[in-house]
Amino acid sequence: MTRSFYRRLLPIAFFIIASLLNVNTSAESTGSSPGGDFILTDHKGQLFDLKDVRGKLVLIFFGYTFCPDICPTELSSLALILNSLDHQADKVVALFITVDPERDTQAKLQQYVPFFSSRLVGLTGSVDEINKVADAYHVQRKIHEHEESDEYYLVDHSANLYVVNGEGKLVQIVPYGLPVEHILQIVQEELKHTYKLREKNQDEM
């Protein structure tokens, strides 16, 4: 192994450790671990239950369609990751959950989400349903003050990527801004863990 190889691994190791610490710190600060199952409505108008994708790795990004920069950037990164996984892409479910359900209706998501990837699933719901999911994942969000007639107001929100394993457990919170190639390596590593768990569970049945 060369020194350059280990230098390339250092940033990845740092962000993996930071992500795991982020999960633990979030749990300590709120008294509960982030994550959990939910049922919302997808961009095709069908109910989506997180329990229905057990056995697959789930990538979750919270945002909104009127977001001017961060959301399009992250969704483009998700699309690149899914394309880079080739045959393994079928083992991954990528979700875009709105934090702005009043504007992001199912019809709006149906227009917006496929622009990035046909594999991406957009999710919306009532304000209460979205708040429940966002709170469960400890997602921060705040609507900017605006006139009632203003349709283009901004929403501040957490821009992390949440990684849920095949058992439905949140295992990593990947910070915003990490290069796509590093996120891809994290996803590939988690895929290995997810399928080891799946094989172990099958052997125990």
What amount of the residues lies in strands? 15-25%
Rg for CA atoms: 17 Å
Please estimate the helix content.
40-55%
In which order are the strands of the major sheet placed? 2-1-5-4-3-8-9
By helix and strand content, what is the structural category? Answer: alpha+beta
Alpha-carbon distance between the two ends: 40 Å
| Poorly predicted residue ranges | 1-30
Query: What about the largest sheet?
Result: 7 strands, mixed
The shape is globular
The count of strands amounts to 9
- How many H/I helices? 5
Mean pLDDT: 85
Order of helices and strands: HEEEHEHEHEEEEH
Produce the secondary structure layout.
Elements: H1 3-30, E1 39-42, E2 47-49, E3 57-63, H2 70-84, E4 92-98, H3 106-112, E5 120-124, H4 127-136, E6 141-143, E7 155-157, E8 161-164, E9 170-174, H5 180-204
Parallel strand pairs: 3-4, 4-5
Antiparallel strand pairs: 1-2, 1-5, 3-8, 6-7, 8-9
What does the model show?
With 205 residues, the chain is of the alpha+beta class. The protein is 41% helix and 20% strand. It contains five helices and nine strands, in the order αβββαβαβαββββα. A seven-stranded mixed beta sheet has the order 2-1-5-4-3-8-9, with helices on both faces. A two-stranded antiparallel ribbon has the order 6-7. Strand 8 and strand 9 form a beta hairpin. Helix 2 crosses helix 5. The protein starts with a helix and ends with a helix.
Question: What's the quick description here?
Answer:
With 205 residues, this protein is α+β, with helices and mostly antiparallel strands. The protein is 41% helix and 20% strand. Helix 2 packs across helix 5.
